[in-house]
């Protein structure tokens, strides 16, 4: 085996890479930092496109390039869709230990809209968001991948209302059953609030999962857009399962025959019968448009095999009813005040600080306040929804 | 040319090594595609092909969700390949970056196995178990 002279040429080529790639951009401003590294916004000199440059420090630890980064690059590189965040280019910095991903800059995300701008959430807007998301998801599923981390803070949105699905850190490929490969799925895919029941009850992570897990998360996002607060905000896996069962009722032979096979499910629900209260909770919407609740019901099926697929959901009659998704007249504020996850965190922090000032004694109880604030949202919801209705009628 | 012969030869070796490491077919196939893609752009004179071959396998385990810790990976490789003792984590890091750049970060590999398996499955439906078993052994 020859000794490698290549290591010399390596550092030389990287120096070239650096100077070429960074020079393409101007007005580089740091906009945030995460676990892996810093994020910059910049403008492409040639196309004048605003981009976000995510730098990822490659610490020389045991594993080389983090697997989540590899996943994200793998999927973003292969997926080209109007509603998926575009990966413009990837390059490695001159020092050889910073990976830079150039992506299109999308200022807002849905969690920010839900929390900060919920007056824009009228039916046409929700419909337009759902349609764009479902078409992105259909594209992902058709290419044999799963997103596996759908949540409102991963749905980015342009000021003109164009939705971009992002954050493929957890996404993976699925192989058809005939492949003869036992796929080792971690149960810890998908943020808890958006995790489907089959993942919650399955203790060993031995079952096979498919696109249905993403569709459940879609249902949760849909409900969150309607309610303006998360549908199942559980803190632990068991609590999460309880919240789901409380809304959708206990499983029986008809709606989820496989449930009784799982130990976790038997432990908690074997002797209970809880009715399905989904239609009750969304009664206001059902009165207004029965199709909304129909679609929600199809997305939030306990049995993964009965859950609607992204392609089927796109054909749902709701999308052909007035107001049509293209009717949305929503124009979000410019990118100077991004409504995104960070903004929400800041707001929560601010509110907490204010509350602490007002009554310092209650400080310890405050973490529980999230539930009370969601109740508050719930009251507010009816008011704001009826105002939405008025708006729509005015149309 | 001579170079393509060398690459061909090492592709064969790559396949053998990854079989011995016990990786499923799609990992092997992805590693092979990485290697072939990389040496379309680069010469075997530039980068050591043995190191690159092992890096290809390592990267393929990452993209195909069969990830093993690098230390374990190296341990196993050392058991199988006698002259790989000079392979260190540092070299894998360096080569991983070079490989990613060489591939221009196109890491998704679509394999024809999916269609093949579907075809075998269809055969099974049509002709019963006998043909199915026959096709599987082939």
What's this entry about, in short?
The complex is a heterodimer of chains A (395) and B (138). Chain A is α+β, with helices and mostly antiparallel strands.
Structure explained in plain terms:
The complex is a heterodimer of chains A (395) and B (138). In chain A, 42% of the residues lie in helices and 12% in strands. In chain A, the strands form three sheets. Chain A has a five-stranded antiparallel sheet, sandwiched between helices. Chain A has a three-stranded antiparallel sheet with strand order 6-8-9. The longest helix of chain A has 26 residues, at 369-394. Chain A has two domains: 26-104, Phosphorylase Kinase, domain 1; 108-320, Transferase(Phosphotransferase) domain 1 (Transferase(Phosphotransferase), domain 1). Chain A has 395 residues and is an alpha+beta fold. The N and C termini of chain A lie far apart (76 Å). Chain B is mainly α and 138 residues long. Chain B has seven helices and no strands. Chain B has helices at residues 2-20, 25-41, 49-63, 70-80, 89-102, 113-127, 129-137. In chain B, helix 2 (25-41) packs across helix 3. The mean pLDDT of chain B is 78. Chain A: It comes from Naegleria gruberi (Amoeba). Chain A: One of its GO terms (biological process) is positive regulation of transcription elongation by RNA polymerase II. Chain A: Keywords: ATP-binding, Kinase, Nucleotide-binding, Serine/threonine-protein kinase, Transferase. Chain A: It is an enzyme of class 2 (transferase). Chain A: It catalyses: L-threonyl-[protein] + ATP = O-phospho-L-threonyl-[protein] + ADP + H(+); L-seryl-[protein] + ATP = O-phospho-L-seryl-[protein] + ADP + H(+).
